[in-house]
Protein backbone atom coordinates (compact mmCIF):
# COMPACT_ATOMS: atom_id res chain seq x y z
CA UNK A 1 0.00 0.00 0.00
CA UNK A 2 1.49 3.34 -1.04
CA UNK A 3 0.79 6.24 1.32
CA UNK A 4 2.44 9.58 1.94
CA UNK A 5 3.25 9.58 5.64
CA UNK A 6 2.45 12.68 7.63
CA UNK A 7 0.92 14.05 10.80
CA UNK A 8 -2.34 12.19 10.13
CA UNK A 9 -0.42 8.94 10.61
CA UNK A 10 0.72 9.97 14.07
CA UNK A 11 -2.52 11.77 14.93
CA UNK A 12 -0.52 14.13 17.09
CA UNK A 13 0.70 17.70 17.15
CA UNK A 14 4.30 18.34 16.06
CA UNK A 15 6.91 17.47 18.68
CA UNK A 16 10.28 19.15 19.40
CA UNK A 17 11.97 16.82 16.89
CA UNK A 18 9.67 18.19 14.18
CA UNK A 19 10.65 21.77 15.07
CA UNK A 20 14.34 20.86 14.98
CA UNK A 21 14.01 18.95 11.71
CA UNK A 22 12.12 21.73 9.93
CA UNK A 23 14.55 24.33 11.26
CA UNK A 24 17.45 22.26 9.90
CA UNK A 25 15.70 21.84 6.54
CA UNK A 26 15.17 25.60 6.34
CA UNK A 27 18.80 26.25 7.20
CA UNK A 28 19.89 23.72 4.59
CA UNK A 29 17.59 25.26 1.97
CA UNK A 30 19.01 28.75 2.51
CA UNK A 31 22.55 27.36 2.52
CA UNK A 32 21.83 25.65 -0.81
CA UNK A 33 20.19 28.75 -2.33
CA UNK A 34 23.25 30.84 -1.41
CA UNK A 35 25.63 28.29 -2.94
CA UNK A 36 26.90 28.27 -6.54
CA UNK A 37 24.99 25.00 -7.10
CA UNK A 38 21.65 26.82 -6.86
CA UNK A 39 22.40 28.56 -10.17
CA UNK A 40 23.09 25.17 -11.79
CA UNK A 41 20.12 23.07 -10.65
CA UNK A 42 17.00 23.02 -8.52
CA UNK A 43 16.93 20.62 -5.60
CA UNK A 44 15.11 19.27 -2.59
CA UNK A 45 17.05 19.49 0.65
CA UNK A 46 17.47 16.24 2.55
CA UNK A 47 19.65 14.86 5.29
CA UNK A 48 21.73 11.72 4.94
CA UNK A 49 23.84 10.53 7.87
CA UNK A 50 23.40 13.91 9.55
CA UNK A 51 24.67 15.91 6.57
CA UNK A 52 22.59 18.24 4.42
CA UNK A 53 22.42 16.88 0.88
CA UNK A 54 20.65 18.72 -1.94
CA UNK A 55 18.91 16.17 -4.19
CA UNK A 56 18.81 17.61 -7.74
CA UNK A 57 15.34 17.46 -9.29
CA UNK A 58 16.71 15.97 -12.49
CA UNK A 59 18.06 12.95 -10.60
CA UNK A 60 14.70 12.45 -8.91
CA UNK A 61 12.59 12.50 -12.08
CA UNK A 62 11.70 9.43 -14.09
CA UNK A 63 13.01 10.18 -17.60
CA UNK A 64 9.98 8.50 -19.25
CA UNK A 65 7.18 10.11 -17.25
CA UNK A 66 9.00 13.27 -16.06
CA UNK A 67 7.38 12.64 -12.67
CA UNK A 68 9.08 12.20 -9.32
CA UNK A 69 10.38 8.70 -8.65
CA UNK A 70 8.82 7.09 -5.60
CA UNK A 71 11.28 6.51 -2.77
CA UNK A 72 9.86 3.69 -0.67
CA UNK A 73 10.38 3.08 3.02
CA UNK A 74 12.58 0.08 3.80
CA UNK A 75 10.10 -1.97 5.84
CA UNK A 76 12.85 -4.45 6.75
CA UNK A 77 15.05 -1.78 8.35
CA UNK A 78 15.51 -1.06 12.03
CA UNK A 79 14.18 2.50 11.72
CA UNK A 80 10.84 1.15 10.47
CA UNK A 81 10.82 -1.59 13.12
CA UNK A 82 11.45 0.98 15.85
CA UNK A 83 8.74 3.29 14.49
CA UNK A 84 6.22 0.43 14.48
CA UNK A 85 6.93 -0.37 18.12
CA UNK A 86 6.14 3.21 19.18
CA UNK A 87 3.33 3.80 16.71
CA UNK A 88 -0.27 3.69 17.86
CA UNK A 89 -2.12 1.95 15.05
CA UNK A 90 -4.91 -0.49 14.40
CA UNK A 91 -3.91 -4.13 14.13
CA UNK A 92 -5.85 -7.21 13.07
CA UNK A 93 -5.95 -8.39 16.71
CA UNK A 94 -7.96 -5.25 17.58
CA UNK A 95 -10.76 -6.52 15.33
CA UNK A 96 -10.53 -10.12 16.52
CA UNK A 97 -11.08 -9.25 20.19
CA UNK A 98 -14.78 -8.37 20.72
CA UNK A 99 -13.91 -6.40 23.86
CA UNK A 100 -11.22 -4.32 22.15
CA UNK A 101 -13.38 -3.79 19.06
CA UNK A 102 -16.28 -2.60 21.24
CA UNK A 103 -14.03 -0.11 23.09
CA UNK A 104 -12.49 1.22 19.88
CA UNK A 105 -15.88 1.57 18.20
CA UNK A 106 -17.31 3.35 21.23
CA UNK A 107 -14.43 5.84 21.26
CA UNK A 108 -15.58 7.15 17.86
CA UNK A 109 -19.34 6.70 18.45
CA UNK A 110 -19.72 3.75 16.07
CA UNK A 111 -21.06 0.26 16.53
CA UNK A 112 -18.48 -2.54 16.24
CA UNK A 113 -19.95 -3.44 12.81
CA UNK A 114 -19.68 0.16 11.61
CA UNK A 115 -16.13 0.40 12.92
CA UNK A 116 -15.16 -2.82 11.15
CA UNK A 117 -16.75 -1.61 7.91
CA UNK A 118 -15.08 1.80 8.10
CA UNK A 119 -11.57 0.82 9.27
CA UNK A 120 -11.21 -2.90 8.57
CA UNK A 121 -9.46 -2.29 5.25
CA UNK A 122 -6.49 -0.87 7.17
CA UNK A 123 -5.66 -4.35 8.45
CA UNK A 124 -6.81 -6.33 5.42
CA UNK A 125 -10.41 -6.98 6.53
CA UNK A 126 -13.08 -6.31 3.93
Describe the structure.
- The chain has two domains: 1-88, no CATH class; 90-126, no CATH class.
- The mean pLDDT is 89.
- It has 126 residues and is mainly alpha-helical.
- Helices cover 46% and strands 10% of the residues.
- Helix 6 (98-107) packs across helix 7.
- It is elongated.
- The chain is built from seven helices and two strands.
How do the helices and strands follow one another from N- to C-terminus?
HHEEHHHHH
What gross morphology would you assign?
elongated
- Number of strand segments: 2
Proportion of residues in extended strands: 5-15%
Main pleated-sheet profile: 2 strands, antiparallel
Low-confidence stretches: none
Helix content: 40-55%
Nearest-integer average pLDDT: 89
Lateral strand order in the biggest sheet:
1-2
What is the rounded Rg?
20 Å
Helical stretch tally: 7
Give the structural class. mainly alpha
How many separate domains?
2
Cα-to-Cα separation, first versus last residue: 15 Å
Features:
126 residues; 2 domains; single chain; 7 helices; two-stranded antiparallel sheet; elongated; 2 strands; mainly alpha
Strand and helix map with partners:
Blueprint (H helix, E strand, L loop, with lengths): L6 H4 L5 H18 L9 E6 L2 E6 H4 L17 H9 L5 H5 L1 H10 L4 H8 L7
Antiparallel strand pairs: 1-2
